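[Amino acid chain]
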Amino acid sequence: MNDEALDGYCGLWCGACEIVKAERNGTQDGIAGIFGVEPSEIHCRGCRSEDVFAGCSRCPMRACASTREVEFCSDCPDFPCGEYHRIASSDDSLPPHFRTTIRNLGEIREKGASEWRRLQAGRWACPSCGRPFSWYAEECSCGQD
């Protein structure tokens, strides 16, 4: 899988997504019930791929960035737009991983996309065994926090 497909236009790192991980690991059966779908519906290869989870396929930021042909939303002349103001000013109504997007976009601008990808891959990997984990995992499957 191309790691660039794991760059969400909005600054999310799709490599830490439970759905992307399930597809990579063949563990769709284990999480299908969490999302209220059949295991066959658990598929995603990242935001920039053509194979995205149903919820992600309806993302207004993904559609906008793709149409405008920008690498990241922060490359758009209209950034920060109304959608970003909504995220930045949101209370707890959005999942916590969405609240990382603006900070991540700043890091991408500062360090570059390649370095950000490297840092994200390390951030979302178990320091003990190196296996990737998701945004909401409290411990790795190896048993370490």
